[in-house]
Amino acid sequence: MSKHLERDLENLQRDILTQAGAVEEAIHKAIRALQERNIQLAQQVIDGDSEIDEEENHVEEECLKILALHQPVAVDLRRTASALLINVDLERMADLAEDIAERAVSLARLPPIPIPEKLQRMTDLTTSMVRQSLDAFVNIDARLARLVCRLDDEVDRYNDAIILELIRLMRGSAEMVEPGLSLFSATRHLERIADHATNIAEDVIYLVEGEIVRHRPAAVHALSDHM
Predict the structure, then answer these.
(1) Buried b vs exposed e over 109-130: b needs ≥16 C-beta within 10 Å?
(2) Are residues 127 and 194 in contact, defined by beta-carbon separation less than 8 angstroms?
(3) Rounded mean pLDDT of 194-211?
(4) In whole angstroms, what is the distance from residue 157 CA to residue 205 CA?
(5) What is the number of alpha carbons within 13 Å of residue 64 lying toward its C-beta?
(6) Nearest residue to 137 via CA among 82, 69, 181
(7) Is residue 12 a contact partner of residue 63, using CB atoms and an 8 Å limit?
(8) Is residue 215 left, alpha or beta, with left meaning phi > 0 and alpha meaning psi from -120 to 50?
């Protein structure tokens, strides 16, 4: 690898980690706004989305520049291609955090609804998945990536449990229907963020092993058996 390519890949990695930090903060703020009925905090997330969009454009331009100037091969090519895919997933996570913030604004104007305790645990697990998927990318660690893929099932279980709790609340009180539906929507958005973290982990498996496993659950499970 040339020194110029090595430098550009290191800069690209730093930019992606900066983007990931902003996305993780947006997720935490959006859930806090939801729990605390805090419209001002929710608005911070909504207003900050345009900055994340701009950073997505920057990272994409850097990836294309690396491809054009350095014409990387083998693992360097896969690293650049993975960065392109990860960049898209991070931006979509930010959009989902914005959607949660918008639900928080709506909920703040509706009758108060009890927030399921499992929502915070689901949030902590989801943001951990985001962080670990990026750690796997930085360290080119397929084993950690497979672990992230497995954690997605746990997030799904939290999502199912929260939905059942919300259904019980809505059945018990007509005034809980509208806020319940908004909270239901926010929970689904959080579950989708975990799906995008899983996508990143699958991209890391591609980076390390050269095999595309996205949309191929059987391949992911087969790989995870080697953990």
Answers:
(1) ebeebebbebbeebbebbbbbb
(2) no
(3) 93
(4) 24
(5) 6
(6) 82
(7) yes
(8) left
Measured at the CA of 132, the angle between CA 18 and CA 148, to 5 degrees, comes to 140
Question: What is the full DSSP assignment across the chain?
Answer: --HHHHHHHHHHHHHHHHHHHHHHHHHHHHHHHHHHT-HHHHHHHHHHHHHHHHHHHHHHHHHHHHHHHH---HHHHHHHHHHHHHHHHHHHHHHHHHHHHHHHHHHHTS---PPPTHHHHHHHHHHHHHHHHHHHHHHT-HHHHHHHHHHHHHHHHHHHHHHHHHHHHHHH-GGGHHHHHHHHHHHHHHHHHHHHHHHHHHHHHHHHH----TT-HHHHHHHHTT-
Tens digits of residue pLDDT in 151-168: 999 999 999 999 999 999
62-88 burial, b for 16+ CB within 10 Å, e for fewer? bbeebeeebebeeebebbbbbbbbbbb
Could you tell me the pLDDT band of residue 227, with boundaries at 50, 70 and 90?
A: very low
Q: How far apart are CA 216 and CA 135, in angstroms?
A: 23
Closest CA to 207 of 113, 142, 163, 159: 142
The tokens describing 43, both together, are 């608005």
In whole angstroms, give the CA distance from residue 89 to residue 195: 9
Compute the distance between CA of residue 81 and CA of residue 85 in angstroms, rounded to an integer. 7
pLDDT, residue 223, reads 52
Calpha distance 23→92 (Å, rounded): 9
Any idea how long the chain is? 227
